Amino acid sequence: MAVRISGVDIPLSKRGVIALTHLYGIGKSISKKILFSVKINENKKVKDWSDSDISKIRKFISNNIKIEGELRSEIQFNIKRLMDIGCYVGTRHRKGLPLRGQKTKNNCRTRKGKKKTVANKKKVTK
Questions:
Q1: Where are the domains of the chain?
Q2: Alpha-carbon distance 44 to 15, whole Å?
Q3: pLDDT for 21 beyond 70
Q4: Helix, strand, or coil (residue 24)
Q5: Which CATH architecture has domain 70-112?
Q6: Per-residue model confidence as pLDDT tens digits over 71-109
Q7: Would you say the pTM of this structure is higher than 0.85?
Q8: In this structure, what DSSP letter does residue 122 have?
Q9: pLDDT tens digits for 34-52?
Q10: Which numeric CATH code is attached to 3-64?
Q11: Bridge pairing between strands 3-5 and 8-10
Q12: How far is CA 4 from CA 39, 54, 95, in A?
């Protein structure tokens, strides 16, 4: 039996702290806070969780934390808002360049994509 939280399968063989990080928007520290607040040992494996433990975790996450689709759409909305108001970060998003002050002469291939070679203009001979 697999454990599903917000439409994502949680691996059964991992510790609770690590397993919850499979959800988009939950890292290790938030995972620890979740398990602490619902009073489940963070070293307990997912296969050892009872049905009441799983329902407590589901209820806590749905009431207190934005994850998965809701979080992704909020992030996309924030980026669109920056692009619409025309701020510096928004224009960098629009151009596909790095946002946080990195140099672009040599690096930033992740953001700019594959190299596009531009040929030199030929010199005019007289």
A1: 3-64, 70-112
A2: 6
A3: yes
A4: coil
A5: Irregular (4.10)
A6: 999 999 999 999 999 999 999 999 999 999 888 888 888
A7: no
A8: P
A9: 999 999 998 999 999 999 9
A10: 1.10.8.50
A11: antiparallel
A12: 20, 9, 38
